[in-house]
Amino acid sequence: MDQLKAMASSSFPNLAVHTQREVVQAVFSSDGEVGISTEKKSGGLRGKLNKVVLAYSGGLDTSVIVPWLRENYGCEVVCFTADVGQGIKELEGLEQKAKASGACQLVVKDLKEEFVRDFIFPCLRAGAIYERKYLLGTSMARPVIAKAMVDVAREVGADAVSHGCTGKGNDQVRFELTFFALNPELNVVAPWREWDIQGREDAIEYAKKHNVPVPVTKKSIYSRDRNLWHLSHEGDILEDPANEPKKDMYMMTVDPEDAPNKPEYVKIGIVSGLPVSLNGQELSPASLLAELNEIGGRHGIGRVDMVENRLVGMKSRGVYETPGGTILFTAVRELESLTIDRETMQVKDSLALKYAELVYAGRWFDPLRESMDAFMEKITETTSGSVTLKLYKGSVCVTGRESSYSLYRQDISSFESGKIYDQADAAGFIRLYGLPMKVRAMLEKGI
Q1: Which helix (H) or strand (E) is 309 found in, with range?
Q2: Which of 37, 223, 350, 413 is catalytic?
Q3: What is the pTM assigned to this prediction?
Q4: Is 70 a catalytic residue?
Q5: What is the pLDDT of residues 241-256, one digit of tens each?
Q6: Is 159 among the residues known to form the active site?
Q7: Is 202 a catalytic residue?
Q8: Of the residues 46, 70, 125, 142, which is catalytic?
Q9: Backbone angles phi, psi at 430, to 5 degrees
Q10: What pLDDT digit, counting tens, does each position of 212-269 carry?
Q11: Which domains does the chain possess?
Q12: Annotated catalytic residue: which of 61, 83, 110, 225?
């Protein structure tokens, strides 16, 4: 964040740069390089907006969206960038790029702690996994970004928000449902559903026509999304489910074959279903996750290759790296085996499926998810203790569980005879429990 402030002040000495609560705001006047059309165009709200907050990455698509919004809606554009742990390289030079594209302001917010604390950890506590494998990395990040956009729109007096999601993906739904839930009066502009730009070459041509410098970056053959929880890979050879991913595709995790030959043990401290410490050291949510990403990554933990059902109906193949998240999911689940009884665990597991579906579908602020979250919080009140895990060449194995709220009793579970459990009682239980099966067999045999 200091780098961002330094870049802004050195590159544009006339900029007003303010920091408050991990927020960087760069305000600059538009230089008129991008033309604004006064002609009303057909369709939607074109020509009727005053100020739009755009979810901005600084890449080709969002750089082109800035002049497109100005040209087609005659509005000012405030670029918004959320730091959710995508890495410092993704944040470098944003002020210059936003100004060159014709934006009137850039707002950067550090949302890492909020992202982990208020979005990732509730999903972790709920045990939410989509379609058996996906730990919801992108699904959880979109609502925290969209929520911040609504806040920025209020702060700058914007009457609309915009995103660069395509009309084929899930993210358009996640952004817009959050906008609807938090401020239904905001207009939403989705350029990919309106404009005539069909691909990268069209976007480059549009940028040149409007004097917008094309970001000089090497285009990845994969479509990637990275945050503090995961890194996803789609596209190129992955579009054929029969193809094995290339070894050099992975960025967060080493190949398990190349991981250390010696296992590493980690001890996760958990309070009320949420992780709070690593190897006895208390850490903030984001710091804890970042540390586990590094540890898990060097042991090749958390690789998932799956074909999933997108919300919009099509199937897609994706490869995910979630090293720290995989470790935390294992730890919480193993501690629950001590602290939650059978009936409750079955209900929790069934609700976790629905919880994951709601998050995947962008319904984070839906009353149903919020109500289910209240159940998850209540039911994990006693899920406190610690879990020791062994990390070795891509695998995570539990080696120890401890909790002062443990429902496990050695004096009951032991094979040795005890006073609480009389083995002779089992005979009557089995007769009663198996009575329906016995009656059915008697009927079939005419007894």
Answers
A1: strand 303-309
A2: 223
A3: 0.88
A4: no
A5: 999 999 999 999 999 9
A6: no
A7: no
A8: 142
A9: -65, -40
A10: 988 656 677 899 999 999 999 999 999 999 999 999 999 999 999 999 999 999 999 9
A11: 2-209 (3.40.50.620), 223-340+380-402 (3.90.1260.10)
A12: 61
